[in-house]
């Protein structure tokens, strides 16, 4: 068994990916954050506080559920679901938000800035801020505010200020731009609570570490339940935090195949998607939001607008560690279209009584393709990264449009 | 070319600062993006800057996600992108300005992704070929720029790194050591065009830089009026004005010319 190299290096590089491509004003804050994070990583008080809140507030460990009816229906591999939808506030995002909010307090800062696409990270940040008594401002594209209304209301109830972003495509990438502008301006008093495993060093590493609790738990749970490590671990990939969180603790298990599922939108040939690894014509090595990775861009290096039915996957770049895992051939990446995600969404509702987030439905869509091809002894572990209550409007509209 | 009539690249930038210093004033460094409000007008504005005595001109290359820019430059560069402005067109614009007889040193200011897509090798070669004297890239910090820096040095071009109010002594040393031409001092924590009064700490920032380098220091971000320019000009070697000029050019070329002249005369 070959073990994966330890990444990132001291400069935040995962092989050729990662780094720190940001305006000078925030570099000292990144240096401070890196130092504080590394200090807290081995600080027993901090770790105890995090573990305790994970247990008593988030409700960790989240269970693994054997999806008996889905398994029977697909007629192949045994399917297990890691239930991040049961984490407090409805998705895996809280794992990172709470960790960084605790870190914010340790740095003596009183205000957090967050961006959000689907609203799950915004809700998680607002939740953590309410718990710890921090001010919270969340930037959200106005298009996303429209398609994720319940989450906007939740953030406001939790005491956060939600700022609509009207620039560019009015989605996640523009929300990140605006969050960084706020941070550059208020860097001395505010922490930027970035919600995915992307951005400048140390974010990809730190977010991965906070999210690794998913994979650490799941690795133990699946062995207890199935008596073996899984043959496949499947997760959706937007920026890539839920997927890196479940992949990372399995990285040295050479027989466990890791599959990331990107948003295929209207299909790769349509050009309207967010499948950064599937479309070589428009996705090349580039720099967006402080990190070097694959970026969907024009020939001139302008960032492209992406499409996905799921706001959380609708992002033109991908976390640098995913680019690295693919580069090392340690993980494979595929995609599911809007249609496939919608089918998977409905199937999981009907067969398992679980309404998944549309993001997570992309991972389920891959399992629908994969499981029937496998033997009944095979074990597939799927990260069900969030619950789908926030998506009901989107799904109702999509099904109406399709006359269903 | 031992007998060049016109100096180019880093030498031209250094000469501009030396000349301003000889005249006992700070250099006037206006910024303007190609393609706003349209291609032809942007060239007229830049020509006007040269005519009123700009010492160096920063030529903005529009980018879809300009995260160091405030609302005015964001809006202007989005219009420029809609007008079809590409990095290629910006290079062509400089060649055209040179043909018009604009001899003022010009540096390209843009974000790293479009430059990477253009190709660092081709970009620096084209700079030499078409009369671009240097570069400013806000999201390419000095410790991430080795590849680009080698090419810039090979072609003897200028490259300005940033120092911010938050910069530690080691970051200031790094920027000083790697900058070619002038150091870009950000006046405030924030994006371009910010409105706050210029802070007291600027004096300390300048002093901190002076202790580690002889490089000229130019201040930008949030410089809007001739009065501010005058005040700053007594402290530093160059004054950079962007958003205020872009705003003026949104009205007319004449407005931009008049403001540029007033800024230049205040120094």
Structural class of chain A: alpha/beta
Strand fraction of chain A: 15-25%
Give the largest chain-chain interface (CB within 8 Å): A-B, 40 and 41 residues
Q: List the secondary-structure elements of chain A in sequence, H or E.
A: EEHHEHEHEHEHHEHEHEHEEEHEHHEH
Please mark out the parts of chain B with pLDDT under 50 across 5 or more consecutive residues, or reply none: none
Low-confidence runs of chain A (pLDDT<50, min 5 residues)? none
- The strand line-up of the biggest sheet of chain A is 3-4-14-9-10-13
- Taken from the alpha-carbon principal axes, the silhouette of chain B is globular
Portion of residues within helices of chain A: 40-55%
Please tell me the overall pLDDT of chain A: 96
Rounded Rg of chain B = 17 Å
Query: What summary fits the major beta sheet of chain B?
Result: 9 strands, parallel
Question: Helix amount of chain B, in percent?
Answer: 40-55%
Give the helix/strand layout.
The complex is a heterodimer of chains A (404) and B (267).
Chain A (H helix, E strand, L loop, with lengths): L12 E2 L2 E2 L8 H15 L2 H15 L5 E3 L1 H7 L3 E6 L9 H14 L4 E6 L3 H13 L2 E7 H6 L1 H9 L3 E5 L6 H14 L4 E3 L10 H24 L5 E5 L4 H7 L9 E9 L17 E6 L2 E6 L23 H8 L3 E7 H15 L5 H13 L8 E6 L7 H10 L3
Parallel strand pairs in A: 4-14, 5-6, 5-8, 6-7, 9-10, 9-14, 10-13
Antiparallel strand pairs in A: 1-2, 3-4, 11-12
Chain B lengths: L8 H14 L4 E7 L5 H13 L5 E4 L10 H12 L4 H13 L6 E4 L2 H7 L1 H11 L3 E3 L9 H9 L3 E3 L1 E2 L5 H10 L4 E4 L14 H10 L6 E4 L5 H8 L4 E4 L1 H9 L1 H14 L1
Parallel strand pairs in B: 1-2, 1-9, 2-3, 3-4, 4-5, 6-7, 7-8, 8-9
Structural description of this entry:
The complex is a heterodimer of chains A (404) and B (267). With 404 residues, chain A is of the alpha/beta class. Chain A is 42% helix and 18% strand. Chain A has 14 helices and 14 strands. Chain A has helices at residues 27-41, 44-58, 68-74, 93-106, 120-132, 142-147, 149-157, 172-185, 203-226, 241-247, 320-327, 338-352, 358-370, 392-401, and strands at residues 13-14, 17-18, 64-66, 78-83, 111-116, 135-141, 161-165, 190-192, 232-236, 257-265, 283-288, 291-296, 331-337, 379-384. Chain A has a six-stranded mixed sheet with strand order 3-4-14-9-10-13, with helices on both faces. Chain A has a four-stranded parallel sheet with strand order 7-6-5-8, sandwiched between helices. Chain A has a two-stranded antiparallel sheet with strand order 1-2. By secondary structure, chain B is an alpha/beta fold. Chain B has helices spanning 9-22, 39-51, 71-82, 87-99, 112-118, 120-130, 146-154, 169-178, 201-210, 226-233, 243-251, 253-266, and strands at residues 27-33, 57-60, 106-109, 134-136, 158-160, 162-163, 183-186, 217-220, 238-241. Chain B has a nine-stranded parallel sheet. In chain B, α6 (120-130) runs parallel beside α7 (146-154) and α11 runs antiparallel to α12 (253-266). The longest helix of chain B is centred in the first third of the chain and has 14 residues, at 9-22. Chain B is globular. The A-B interface holds A 11, 19-29, 31, 167-168, 173-174, 177, 180-181, 184-188, 284-290, 295, 297-303 and B 63-68, 70, 74, 78, 81, 86-88, 112-118, 138-141, 143-144, 161-168, 171, 175, 186, 189-191, 194.
